[in-house]
Every structure is written in structure tokens, then in C-alpha cells.
């Protein structure tokens, strides 16, 4: 098979060697971006007079045909042509004749591949930002429906204090808000054109880099041609932002999995987002949440993989950089899939309000109320903590909860306790009275939801 760069070679590599070096198996995902880059480049070559307009017209027609075929998945890629860039160039030449060979004037695969990656990530990151917003809206909706749903709040996975269930899930809203801000911020470094950097030193042709960047919709051009072809920071940043997003999704997934157990039974996932067992007929498994938790590992791997690829590469382009792609594609597909699945899972889940209600009535998560009550009556908080702890112990011995004690029982530990204590010990009171800014008090949660709606 003839190579487009075959001139200085006396013999060709064997097929299995080509196979090892080829990236076409995965970089064909850049087909549309690669054609777009070529269209911009050749248009600029025509406008600057580097190529005659007649040639440009022919090349543009050829590229348009290739694009049409690409969209219909009709292009037949060859391993012998190594990568997407050489495959397309070969197809163009086969289609329109030797004039197709003029496309590569003043360009190298090094600036070409970098351009493709910038274009690809720009589109996919904005898709991810949109998916994040949709997911945030779904969380907001579940939160609005569950402001009054009281649930146990945990620290150390031990019952801590009663909270509004809305307050709990809004935590994930804010995590996603930070993720979104990070992806948006990273756009500044994705939205830059390397095109025209050539192999690494620029070109002798009087090209107009700003023009090709404008045609591709880039906001800026790289100021240094060597930086343009060797920079992969924008991909590392994407992987990093994705890794942190997946951390958040994985934590949420873990809670979904726990809450779906018979032991918790706080929520029930919709059948459409659950799976059964091949042997145990009663099973309804939260596979999707588990997979998202599991896939998080892969995304961390992709980040560490690319950092490691880059750490020893001298300037400028090295073939090592071809290894930037699979991890990036995998991360894009995984993050997009995980966000869509998670959104559906949260939108369709049923919150078991009565079970949550029952849970907060059968625990000691109102113990802080009693300590605070005594402190309000003038007892030093440390002492109030001790007294309450003793009353909790009394309950444990009796096999009951604080609200089951009589006033008499309570007064044995402190004479400051009066009948009004029982109202305060009710879980609803415990939640509604936590009205400090950002607290779980119903009024605060409503304000928080308002704030979230303004930000979204
Ligand atoms: N397939 C290559 C990659 O993904 C394209 C750039 C190749 N450039 C080169 N000089 N070999 O990195």
C-alpha cells in the first residue's frame, strides 16, 4: 500500500507494524472535525492567494462529498493509511485527483491533529455543560417536592441530626454547579486554534492563522507554534474535571445504592433504571448506580494515563501523543452516558416519605436539640452535652427514645428541663429551628432553592 509520505523509503513496513502504529481505529471519531479543519485551511489558502481559487473550489467540493459520506458512515478507513488525517487526504486525492495533494500546503498533521482535538472537545464539553444543567434541574425538582420530607442526616454513617431531604440532595446540586463552572472555565483553553503552527516552527507560506481560526469559530490562536503542537493541557484539564465530576456522581451513586436496600428503603428506583437477577426472582438491583460508581475508576485511570504519557516528552510533537485519544474518547462517552443515566434515575425515583418519617422517629438524632435546650437555659454546653448523653443512655437501657421519656425521667438528670422540651424534640421542630444561613431549616432550604434557580 503506497504511503503519502513514502518518497524517502526503500521498503514498506509489514502490516502488523502498521497496525501497531495506526490510530485510525479510534481517531475516526474525529472525522467531522478533521474535514472542518481542512475546509477552513483550504479556504484560507485560497483567500490569501497561496492556492488558485479553481483548485480550492475543487478541493472544497471533494471535502463536501467526503463529509456527506462520513455523516452516512460510508467511508472505508484503512489501517495502512495510519490515521484519520492520511485516510481522508488519500480519499480526497482518489476522489478529485492530484490537485487534492495541494490541501496539505502550509500544514502538518501535528497542527491538524491538535486542531481536531480542540474542535472535538469544544463541542463535547458544551454538551456536557448542557447535560449538567439538565441534571441540576432534575435535582431541583426532586428537592422542591421534598422540602418537608424529614430524613436522618448522617456523619460517620451514624444518625446525626434530622434534615430536610431536599437539603440533602441539594448538596449534589452545588457539587455539579462547581463542576459546571470548572468545565466552563476550561473552555478558555480549549477554544484556541493551533492551526497554521505547521509541524512546529510555522510555515514559509503567507498564511492567515486568524482567518482559519475565525472560520472554525475559535476565539484565539496559539501565540507560539511549538506550544500549539505540543500542548495537551486542555485534555488533561478535561480529564481532571471529569474525574472530579465522576467522584461526585460516584458518591451520589453510593447513596442511591444504600438508600435502595431493604435496610434503608429510603427510595425506590424506577424499574426502567434497575435490573433483575438471573437466579433470584425477588431481586431488583441498582446496576446503573453501581456501574457509574465503578466507571469512576476508569476515568481516574485516563487522567493518570495522560499525565504519565506527557511527563517525559520533549518538545514538540512525539508519537507518544497519539496516546491522548482513547482515554479522552472514553471519558467523553462515559461522562455523557453517566450524566444521562443519573438524570433519569433521579427523575424517576420514588422517595419513600413515610419510611423516612419513621426513621427519624426511631433514633437519637434529636439529642442535639435537648443539649441546645439546656444551653439556652443557661447550662454550659459541655454540661448540657453530658446530661443529654446520660438521658440517651437511660433510653438505651429502657429500650426507648428521648420522646418516650417522662418529664420525671428527664428531671432526674436536670431540673432545668420543663414540659416545653417535648415540642422541641419533635423532628419537624429540629429541622425548622435550624434556620441559620445555609442550614436545613425549611425556610433556609426554600431560599437555597431560590438561589439555585437564579444561578442555573
Ligand atoms: N495520529 C497522530 C496522532 O494522533 C497524528 C499526528 C501524527 N504526526 C506525525 N508527525 N506522525 O498523534
UniProtKB/TrEMBL annotation:
UniProt subcellular location: Cytoplasm
Pathway(s) of this molecule: Amino-acid biosynthesis; L-arginine biosynthesis; L-arginine from L-ornithine and carbamoyl phosphate: step 3/3
HAMAP family, sorted: Arg_succ_lyase (MF_00006)
Source organism superkingdom: Bacteria
Enzyme Commission number: 4.3.2.1
Alphabetical list of PANTHER family matching this protein: ARGININOSUCCINATE LYASE (PTHR43814)
GO biological process terms held by the UniProt record: L-arginine biosynthetic process via ornithine
Residues of the Fumarate lyase N-terminal domain: 7-301
Domain named Argininosuccinate lyase C-terminal: residues: 364-431
GO terms of molecular function: argininosuccinate lyase activity
Reactions mediated catalytically: 2-(N(omega)-L-arginino)succinate = fumarate + L-arginine
Protein name: Argininosuccinate lyase
UniProt keyword rRNA-binding present: no
